[in-house]
Amino acid sequence: MLSMVIHQFRSAGRYRAQISHHGRKSTDIEFDVDEKSEVMQLDIDLAQTSKTRPEDCDCEPSKQAERTVSPKGYVLFHASSGAGYSVAVSNAEGKLIFDSAKLSDGDLFAITMLEPATYPMKNTVGSATGEIVVSLKPEIAKKIKSLETAYIDVTENKFNPERIEVTSSQGLVFRIKGSARILIEKKPDPASKRDKPAIRWQKLPTVKKP
User: In what order do the strands lie in the sheet with 13-21?
Assistant: First the structure.
């Protein structure tokens, strides 16, 4: 499952993000939160930043792109390819500030679902359950690009709404209010002989404060 998690780092300073792939540490990167910065969105691709140069390469390492964001802005963690990525961010004192494996109050989790089907969802931190119904009706297909993003508020014990219908490729954002680890699975289809990819990213959205 490819997805995006969004966090706002409100305190200025330097942060270190530890990227893991399938539970194994891959690499560390740093970024700055600067009160003087006017950058409102910092995109960090976990798949690209975790790539390393071949051991037999004698080329010079490329200069790291400047990673700075305003404390009023957002950092978007995503993976352009592959799966199984996670990130844990600590401040300059080494205190854990953000963990994509367990989202907290104010975080956002965004997905785009393509394949029409029913998808049960649950918050494994608590008892919240619900379902997402993805469809692609002919009369809506021509208006896909103009569809507004749908939202679900998440607490440990409740999704609001508990059932939501979206169109294939329509953006869906979970607004976390408490603690959450959201699990989404496709409901088995007896008529299907094989599973198809259910969730993909097409492009990075511009995040606006909810």
Answer: 68-69, 24-33, 13-21, 85-90, 96-99
